[in-house]
Write a structure and sequence with these properties.
There is one protein chain. The protein is α+β, with helices and mostly antiparallel strands. It has one domain. Helices cover 29% and strands 28% of the residues.
Length: 165
């Protein structure tokens, strides 16, 4: 079993990333590469999406990882209380026309999702501070642009709700 499925433990350089915020949807086109001592390309040097792989977050609670045109994983985050959330995961694949092959793929995909979710769970449960803020004590860098955009838009939406009431 892998001790780390995301990045597989390699040192990684994050170029950019190319990130958009449109219609309450943040889209991130990762452009990572193995660290060989190079300087990461700045956000303004990554001018367009480098490929069709992307990660999206749709406010208020939908996340999509588009791995290829025929494969994506979608997660819906359902808050239970102020500190707990239930995550519903679903995979979508094209090209599985044989029932037995589809069942095998579903089984392997389900186990893989459980493995990754288990790793994410450990990270989330130990995260400090428990509640993130736009201007926290973290030292963010250009690779954190998606996080900054998320926090900015979340703060705007919360202010809009408060002003409407």
């Amino acid at each position: 079993m892998y001790t780390n499925t995301i990045g597989r433990g390699n040192r990684t350089v994050v170029n950019g990333p190319y990130t958009t915020l449109e219609n309450n949807t943040i889209t991130v086109y990762p452009d990572n590469e193995v660290d060989a001592g190079q300087t990461p390309r700045r956000i303004d040097e990554v001018k367009s999406p480098p490929h069709d792989f992307f990660v999206q977050f749709k406010f208020p609670n939908i996340w999509q990882n588009r791995i290829s045109s025929g494969f994506r994983i979608v997660a819906a985050f359902a808050p239970i209380d102020d500190e707990s959330t239930l995550i519903y995961l679903r995979s979508y694949r094209k090209g599985f026309n044989f029932p037995l092959l589809k069942q095998l793929s579903d089984y392997i995909g389900s186990r893989g999702n459980q493995l990754v979710a288990g790793q994410d769970r450990r990270v989330v449960q130990t995260q400090e501070p428990k509640r993130s803020e736009l201007y926290g004590q973290e030292k963010l860098n250009q690779a954190d642009r998606p996080l900054i955009l998320y926090r900015q838009r979340r703060e705007e939406l919360i202010k809009n709700i408060k002003h409407a009431n």
